[in-house]
Amino acid sequence: MNQPALKSKLSITEAAPGEIGAEVFGMDVTALTHGSPEWDMLRQLIYRNKLVVIREQFGLTEQEYVDFTRKLGRPQVYFQFHYHHPDFPEIFVSNNVNEDGKKLGVAGTGRYWHTDCAFEKKPLSFTSIYPLIFPQSARETSYIDMHRVYLELPDDLRRYVDGAMAVHEGQMRYKVQASDIDRSLRELLDRVNEEVPPVTHPAVIEHPVTGEKILYISSGFTTKLVGLSYEENQRVMQALFDFVERPEHIHTHYWEEGDLIVWDNRPLIHKASAVKPGEASRSYRIGIYDDLPFYMGLEK
Ligand SMILES: [Fe+2]
After folding, report:
1. Cα 169 to averaged position of ligand 1 atoms, centre (Å)
2. From the CA of 285, how far away is ligand 1's center (Å)?
3. Could you count the other beta carbons within 10 Å of the beta carbon of residue 18?
């Protein structure tokens, strides 16, 4: 990537009311200091706009990227080590370019609607992404603001989620790795269920900073609502996901070279675009805990 000229003056464009996504130019993320006014401004931007695109961050080193996330909160070390960067366990590598026959990270991650780590008792507060190699035909990531969806939810669906608990499961998204060879699917499922057993969260959560009510479900990880029959769940979950995933709810981020983005996993679900066969793709992700409860009522 090209090295930039001198950093220009800080300029911020916030999302229009009801929309998501702030755009920041002229920020030197390597110079950000924990607790400084700029740091506080960035945290508030993330909560207020849900998605923040920091432009022109060309050529950050792995160390600089990790340091940046460490200033925003506590970087996550993902529970499955085969996703890790070999020298920086905080960096989750989504990659299909393997040099010298050496596998780096995991290919084809997150191509379904989800929030990161919804299947854990304490899901991930923020996600940041820093792409290194862009595929030629797919340079976008899609988002849906689940606060807005909750506000627009028709009464015949809202009555199922208000006060309800939803079950989230990660097992069907498990990526088979080299060490799984010779294991049966039953053994694999049992092991994944042991590592990340199904969890429940309120179907409607309250944001600890903004106070917004958020429909906290996704077709990627949410399998059912507690207390409904199998048949009723099939019908209601499909109707909910059909409503959630309507085209008018989708915000698309079109990636540009140098983009570093951070979003709040509480109100947003997201989906990576599919990469065409033969196209190279590599991006770094670091999850960040902001050390607030994920939702009101959940311990930190
Ligand atoms: Fe994701």
Report:
1. 14
2. 9
3. 9
Q: Do 269 and 115 form a contact (C-beta atoms < 8 A)?
A: yes
- 81-85: long-range contacts at Cβ-Cβ below 8 A with a sequence spacing of 24 or more? 82/106, 82/175, 82/177, 83/109, 85/284
Rounded to 10 degrees, the C-alpha dihedral 20/25/26/27 comes to: 30
Q: What is the pLDDT of residues 183-230, one digit of tens each?
A: 888 888 888 888 889 999 999 999 999 999 999 999 999 999 999 999
Q: What's the pLDDT at 180? A: 83
> Which residues fall within 8 angstroms of residue 24, CB to CB, at 6 or more apart?
10, 11, 12, 42, 45, 52, 53, 54, 55
Sign of CA dihedral 13, 206, 220, 104: positive
Report whether 239 contacts 157 (CB < 8 A): yes
Question: 145 C-alpha to center of ligand 1: Å?
Answer: 15
Residue whose entry in the numeric block shows the structure tokens 């809202």: 158
Q: Is 176 exposed, middle or buried (0-12, 13-18, 19+ CB in 10 A)?
A: exposed
**Sequence ranges of the domains in the chain:** 11-289
8 A C-beta contact, residue 279 and residue 138: yes
Superfamily designation of domain 11-289: Clavaminate synthase-like (3.60.130.10)
How far away, in angstroms, is 37 Cα from ligand 1 center?
29
Name the DSSP letter for residue 73: S
Residue 33, classed as helix, strand or coil, is coil
The DSSP bridge partners found for residue 261 are 53, 129
132-147 tens-digit pLDDT: 988 888 789 999 999 9
